[in-house]
Amino acid sequence: MKSFVKILAAGLVAGSALTAAVAVAQDYPNQPVTIVVPFAAGGPTDTVTRLVAAAMSEDLGQQVVVQNVGGAGGTLGAGQVAAANPDGYTLLLHHIGMSTAPALYASLPFDPITDFAPIGLVTEVPMTIVARRDFEPATLEDLIAYVKKNGEDITYANAGIGAASQLCGLLFMDALDTKMTEVPYQGTGPAMTDLLGSQIDMMCDQTTNTTSQILAGEIKAYAVTTPERIAVLPDVPTMAEGGVENFELGIWHGLYAPAGTDQAIIDKLTQSLQKALADEMVGNSFAELGTYPVQASDATPAALAQKLEGQIALWAEVIAAAGVEAQ
Ligand code: ASP
Question: Is the pLDDT of residue 3 over 50?
């Protein structure tokens, strides 16, 4: 009898928790939602996020606002979201850096797996190796010879340790067995301004931040990091064409909430993300920038969780093999 009462009571508690969760989700969102971009405004992560946020705003019927929290290669912004109230009103859009940071930092203010609730993958973006318009080397072959010869005399912009631009530079320097002088920014948006002004020599950054400047002839492009050339930049060779084998890098992005966010809210955000990625305007804008939205089956918590876990293991190995020590 006693146990029957207990079961009944437990059922009632579970039932009322469920009712409360459904009520929270039905009411959500009833105020603007913030997506933290862990880099400066005007860069590639910012560009992708603003396109997705605009489409999600329409779907959710609430403003989805982008907040730029740049610094420390994306770890400041990610740490801020990890510590935020898990109420669905503070989210994070971050890239591959979520999986490289554990190998690059001796201690992090967050755990990429346990401190976040994944919502879904967003996109995967090719990288381009670019330089100021008046940089001496003409082709990828020339660039490789020039970098090997001039090493640390060359300045190389990135968005700090843990950024995609830093990872690409690490792999490039490792492949060429040389070192350049790294200059960190809060994001590759401001780094692009300095590249356009010829204050810096080189950068490796996503097509979402380089395509229009390459096409306008405002910067030089030497290579794309995809196995094949890409449609929007048909004249830019692959790394393999320049003789650098096994240099493929795609910058995947994911949307996260802080761990502990109500599952019904996560489900609503996943649905909204999927609708945003199916939006024609988002698809067209992504295509013009050399990327594409992931399929709906990948814009899910399970797909993002699986990607993150696999990539943390992969980059730990690659970064250790490149002899890079955690800072
Ligand atoms: N995505 C860039 C990087 O990781 C930074 C940025 O978005 O500004 O280098």
Answer: no
Q: Does 8 have pLDDT greater than 80?
A: no
Last residue of a domain, one of 207, 242, 277: 242
Torsion, Cα of 145, 206, 231, 239 (10° steps): 20
Q: Is the shortest distance between the CB of 45 and ligand 1 below 6 Å?
A: yes
Q: Ligand 1 mean position to 311 CA, how many Å?
A: 18
Distance 45 CA to ligand 1 centre (A): 6
Residue 57: CATH number of its domain: 3.40.190.150
Of all protein residues, the one whose alpha carbon is nearest to atom 6 of ligand 1 is 187
The type of residue at 270 is T
Q: Is residue 2 part of a domain?
A: no
Total number of domains in the chain: 2
**Residues 229-280: tens digit of each pLDDT:** 999 999 999 999 999 988 999 999 999 999 999 999 999 999 999 999 999 9
* Token duo for residue 21: 């969760």
Q: What is the CATH number of the domain that holds 152?
A: 3.40.190.10
Question: Rounded to an integer, what distance in angstroms lies between the CA atom of residue 29 and that of residue 255?
Answer: 17
Q: Answer yes or no: is the C-beta of 157 below 6 A from any ligand 1 atom.
A: no
Domain boundary among 181, 207, 242: 242
Q: pLDDT tens digits for 174-223?
A: 999 999 999 999 999 999 999 999 999 999 999 999 999 999 999 999 99
Residue 107 lies in domain? 7-125+252-321
Residues 102 and 15 in one domain: yes
Q: Is 40 touching ligand 1 by the criterion CB < 6 Å?
A: yes
Same domain, 89 and 184: no
Are 247 and 172 spatial neighbours (Cβ–Cβ below 8 Å)?
Answer: yes
Same domain, 185 and 121: no
Rounded to 5 degrees, φ, ψ at 80 are: -65, -40
Specify whether the CB–CB gap between 254 and 118 falls below 8 A: yes
**Tokens standing for residue 272:** 């909204």
- How buried is residue 132: exposed, middle or buried, by Cβ count under 10 Å (0-12/13-18/19+)? buried
